């Protein structure tokens, strides 16, 4: 391979890396806007958050459904990667679980808009739901096992049950101003904690 060809290859790799970074910035901005304003938020609001033009977003994601699906996958991966990081950096596994559930609740805000975006693509929606379950349930299970091993929660709840329960609590979020799903989720996480055991004499 000539030097020029090698340099050309490196240039292509750099462009691909730059494009991937730009896409990640757009997805992070879109996720933040969707959480704050819903999945029907104007594209210009997302563009402003990302610091790009509206045309840049449409070049990456030609339709709103494309954007919502990409944000969905981006948030699934961010949520999955956050589990081990929180466990390593937080003072207790139960606290790490609570902080991870906070991220999961944010993710659910976007997920609830996915069905409407994919109303004509049931197979696509089902595939994404399977991807979500397969990716996130093991992360939640890992956090639960750590909390059980630390004696902080009872071992009688599964990851799927907990995530399904949180999802059900969040289902009505945004529809009734008197309903505070976030507060109820925090009560749920507090409720599964095991009370501190008295010290032993041995």
Characterise the protein shown here.
With 202 residues, this protein is mostly helical. The protein has helices at residues 3-37, 43-50, 54-60, 64-89, 93-111, 114-117, 122-149, 159-170, 181-191. Helix 1 crosses helix 2 and helix 4 (64-89) packs parallel to helix 7 (122-149). The radius of gyration is 21 Å and the shape is globular. The model has no long low-confidence stretch (mean pLDDT 85).
Q: Quick one: overall form? A: globular
Mean pLDDT value: 85
- Output the number of helix runs: 9
Helix content: over 70%
Strand content: under 5%
What gap, in angstroms, lies between the N and C termini?
72 Å
Please state the CA-atom Rg, rounded to the nearest Å: 21 Å
Number of strands: 0
The run of helices and strands is HHHHHHHHH
pLDDT < 50 runs, ≥5 residues: none
How is the biggest beta sheet arranged?
none
The helix/strand class is mainly alpha
